[in-house]
Write a structure and sequence with these properties.
Largest sheet: none
Number of helices: 7
Shape: elongated
Number of domains: 3
Helix content: 25-40%
């Protein structure tokens, strides 16, 4: 019953758009019914687990966000002529501070690195950089560092 009402409601909603817009919307076939009357438009939100990421919202899951972007890029006075520029998934549209994720992550170098140790002593406080590990070997075997020199003894220019 739910699928029948959802399909008909969505089909009726899609009929309110122009042919141009309808070609860009999902297609819904006629439900297997003779007649459905007095059905108001409904937005269907499935109750299955959503497998999005931190950028997923109700607007992106229901595709309303894409339609709003399209609307503002076509009807409004956009300073950019295409709708992707208004997307937080597009590098031109995403927030430069948080990259569209809604939060910023910064590394505290003083907590990550123990400057009193040399590369051979394991100065990087991250499990992937333990001495003998793959990432550690990238630095230790690069030939760019004195593996026995304490990090605190590196000059300002060597840190750059």
């Amino acid at each position: 019953m739910f699928d029948t009402i959802a399909a008909e409601s969505q089909r009726q909603l899609n009929e309110t758009f122009t042919a141009f817009q309808r070609n860009r919307l999902p297609r819904y076939g006629q439900p297997d019914m003779d007649s459905i009357e007095n059905l108001s438009v409904a937005i269907i939100v499935d109750q299955k687990r959503i497998g999005g990421n931190s950028r997923s919202t109700v607007g992106t899951i229901t595709d309303l966000y894409a339609l709003l972007r399209l609307l503002f890029s076509r009807v409004g006075r956009p300073y950019v002529g295409y709708s992707n520029a208004f997307s937080f998934n597009d590098p031109q549209g995403m927030c430069p501070d948080c990259d569209g994720l809604g939060r910023r992550s910064e590394v505290d170098i003083d907590k990550l690195i123990d400057r009193g140790k040399s590369l051979n002593d394991g100065p990087i406080r991250h499990p992937a950089f333990n001495p003998g590990g793959w990432f550690w070997k990238l630095y230790a075997n690069s030939g760019l560092f004195d593996n026995d020199k304490k990090l605190s003894d590196y000059s300002e220019q060597e840190w750059m």
